[in-house]
Amino acid sequence: MYFAALLARTEDGWEASDMELDDVESLSDLIDLTRSASVDDDTVVALIEQEDTWFGVVRVDGEEDPRYFVSNAAAASRSSYGSMLTDELLGKDEEDDELDELDLDGTEDGEDEVIASYSDGGSADGDQEDEDEDDHDDVRAGAEPAPAGPLGDPRLLDDLGVSHKQLMTLDGDALSEIADSLGATEVLEAVR
User: Fold this and answer.
1) What is the pLDDT of residue 132?
2) Which strands make up the sheet holding 67-70, listed edge to edge?
3) What pTM was estimated for this model as a whole?
């Protein structure tokens, strides 16, 4: 179960809105949704939480590059929405996913044959050199695995009242604690 909300900073404080994750299929969608909540290109903070397993924070300031933080990257990487953030933070591109789906061994049978043949130590084509096998494994391996702990920019909320030390140690109802430090508890609870 996910909870997601957008907190947009205004001249009068924070405004909160429920974030519909059903329409979010990529990190670009998430960023576009976050930017759309901005008032006069001011700061917007997207908060995502999955049942006390992990939480993520995305901060957008006008047209500047978004900043990200995930409390537990290993747990988040096993989640559809969390993996969007961890893939970005680990440098895994959407193109990597497309490469994984390609039939790189040149057979008509596709990837299933390649996966099965590599799992038993053989190669898809007995005549291929070990070097070719290593190249294929490199493509399938993709980016480094997600660490079991925080990942991203822990200082992304420092100037808003949530210190990096506080952010790194949050657990449980982390989003409420973040909202409390931002002075946005009431508006966040109104959309919860």
Assistant:
1) 44
2) 13-18, 2-10, 43-50, 54-61, 67-70, 151-152
3) 0.74
